[in-house]
């Protein structure tokens, strides 16, 4: 028996083979803790904040509580809406930026992030929006909880570690009074002197303060990209690929897409810092791939896709990005993809596009191009 029995919960993208669940033991612990607390303390009108819900399992299983979701991930917001609809639940507002949170909240269910800088950043935000008597539950799967988590959580309040189950742990934190404000260092800047780039990072934004090898290999191949009026950087992260594409083709209209609100904010700042104001227009989109995109078709889509989602290695997101790109390519347009050789993206591209050629290489990585035909 779990708290999710009776609910129907799907992942996004959906797991066709049905091997992966849309919730885990850490979610179970969080929901069970909230239910117990509400029953014991007769907490009827609670204002609940849900932080980092992966696919909306926490929102679905807390029906009846006034709640708000905060997640950096647009995919999480869409999955939450999808799962609420599947289970006949009402609407739960989800926000992507802490400025939209308001507060104060009486209780928080917090899926712990894996990176310490993200954990401390989220703790500082939670600290600013909870009431004095609030209760915070923070949980994660043991293999994903960062080392020294107790010490980091203790910055937020008094921590009680509750016995874990099924390789998951949960902590109860009482923020109370008198804890000093959590100080978060500004994200470090990534400098690429050979390209004349200074790229700001952000909590959880891919690459951080070092350039990803895949991104470097993709950028190195860009001089071979045909002249393109419309270019997309799909899964832009800090924006390095789109910025360098625009340097090669200053008149091109460039669109930056990412599912992470923080990434798109950082890409926007990096465009401002590293590109002059002249040339074609530049646009930014937060969302799941290009699903919500309705603008002009692209002559080139550039993509350094993720190969995992919430700690699980999967090609589902890459696959979805490739087919998504295909529907937004103009006749003759090309999708350029960089990937580790062993990932075998050439097979996927051939299946989707019927063609694939190599346009860049490195001992571990390849850059592949697939084009749509004139009849597309
Ligand atoms: N382009 C950057 C680079 O090369 O350094 C980042 C590449 S990183 C491997 C993959 C990026 O895809 C991340 O920024 C991630 O947030 C984004 N991403 C993951 N799933 C996505 C989705 N469904 N839609 C849009 N972006 C997504």
Characterise the protein shown here.
The protein is an alpha/beta fold and 376 residues long. Helices cover 28% and strands 28% of the residues. The protein has 2 domains: 25-174, Vaccinia Virus protein VP39 (Rossmann fold, 3-Layer(aba) Sandwich), CATH 3.40.50; 189-371, Vaccinia Virus protein VP39 (Rossmann fold, 3-Layer(aba) Sandwich). It has helices at 25-40, 57-60, 74-86, 116-129, 149-154, 213-221, 240-248, 261-274, 316-327, 345-353; strands spanning 47-51, 66-70, 93-95, 105-111, 130-141, 158-165, 168-174, 189-192, 197-200, 230-234, 253-258, 282-286, 298-303, 308-309, 312-313, 329-340, 357-361, 365-371. A 7-stranded mixed sheet has the order 3-2-1-4-5-7-6, sandwiched between helices. The chain has a 7-stranded mixed sheet with strand order 12-11-10-13-16-18-17, sandwiched between helices. The chain binds S-adenosylmethionine. Residues 75, 206-207, 212, 214-215, 235-237, 240-241, 257-260, 263, 288-289, 304, 306, 317 line the site of S-adenosylmethionine.
What's this entry about, in short?
This protein is of the alpha/beta class and 376 residues long.
Features:
Rossmann fold, globular, alpha/beta, 7-stranded mixed sheet, 2 domains, single chain, binds S-adenosylmethionine, 376 residues
């Amino acid at each position: 028996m779990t708290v999710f029995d009776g609910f129907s919960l799907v992942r996004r993208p959906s797991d066709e083979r049905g091997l992966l669940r849309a919730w885990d033991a850490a979610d179970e612990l969080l929901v069970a803790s909230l239910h117990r607390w509400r029953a014991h303390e007769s907490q009827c009108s609670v204002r609940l904040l849900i932080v980092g819900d992966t696919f909306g399992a926490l929102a679905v299983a807390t029906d009846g509580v006034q709640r708000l979701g905060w997640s950096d991930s647009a995919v999480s917001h869409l999955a939450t809406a999808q799962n609420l609809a599947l289970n006949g639940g009402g609407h739960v507002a989800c926000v992507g930026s802490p400025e939209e949170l308001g507060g104060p909240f009486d209780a928080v269910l917090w899926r712990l992030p894996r990176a310490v800088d993200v954990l401390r950043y989220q703790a500082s935000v939670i600290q600013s929006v909870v009431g004095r008597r609030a209760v915070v539950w923070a949980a994660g799967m043991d293999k994903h909880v960062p080392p020294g988590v107790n010490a980091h959580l203790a910055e937020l309040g008094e921590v009680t570690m509750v016995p874990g189950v099924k390789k998951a742990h949960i902590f109860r934190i009482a923020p109370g009074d008198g804890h000093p404000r959590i100080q978060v260092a500004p994200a470090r800047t990534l400098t690429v002197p050979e390209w004349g780039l200074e790229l700001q990072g952000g909590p959880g934004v891919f690459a951080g303060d070092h350039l990803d090898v895949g991104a470097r290999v993709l950028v190195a191949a860009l001089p071979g990209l045909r002249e393109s009026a419309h270019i997309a950087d799909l899964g832009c992260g800090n924006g390095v690929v789109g910025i360098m594409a625009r340097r090669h083709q200053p008149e091109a209209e460039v669109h930056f897409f990412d599912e992470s609100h923080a990434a798109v904010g950082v890409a926007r700042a990096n465009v401002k810092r590293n590109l002059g104001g002249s040339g074609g227009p530049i646009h930014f989109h937060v969302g799941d791939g290009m699903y919500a995109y309705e603008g002009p078709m692209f002559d080139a889509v550039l993509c350094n896709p993720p190969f995992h989602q919430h700690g699980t290695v999967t090609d589902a997101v890459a696959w979805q990005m490739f087919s998504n790109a295909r529907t937004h390519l103009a006749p003759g347009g090309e999708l350029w993809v960089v990937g580790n050789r062993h990932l075998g993206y050439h097979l996927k591209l051939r299946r989707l596009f019927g063609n694939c050629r190599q346009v860049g290489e490195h001992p571990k990585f390849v850059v592949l191009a697939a084009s749509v035909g004139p009849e597309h």
